[in-house]
Amino acid sequence: MEGLGDQNPSDQKTAEREWERELLAEFAVPATRNRAFEKLVRRYQKPLYAHIRRMVLNHDDTDDLLQNTLIRCYNALDRFESRSGLYTWLYRIATNLCLTHLEQQRKRRWLSLSNDTVRMEAELRSATPVDRLQDPDVLLEKALLRLPPKQRLVFQMRYYDEVPYEQMSEILGTSTGALKASYHLAFKKVENYLKNL
Predict the structure, then answer these.
(1) Model-level pTM?
(2) Which helix (H) or strand (E) holds 59?
């Protein structure tokens, strides 16, 4: 987060909590509510965008889901109870919206999605070994597409965002043991997929 990178973790957490407390106090006053919300958006928009984008992969859907996340936040921020951190709460809202979106997409376009996967796999098989190694990020994304949405989410939160299992447990409402098992399974599936290219 802004200006917190050089502090030790406990000081960083204390500074984050203080920033949140001040922001919530500012948001509670009608005259400063919009300014407080603009601060929140500036601080969390980029990491939320990255999290959502990795889940839904499409820029337009990501923008819509980010906007919906922020609208929900604005409408509920005065009732935020601070049991978890503000970013954890926002992450949970964004995650739930992503999972709902992915489930709706799956129901609407399951045939289309399976055809896209078949087409991508055919393109990948027809590529030369040199082509296959040119963009490891693309290969990883293709491997992640093969995971179930919740397993993909756990993998992305841990692999890309380095979210601690305890925080992930707060966000997803799942035990840390189940999350560790899910990450391990996802990692093995991705590893096997990449080995068999």
Answers:
(1) 0.72
(2) helix 59-76
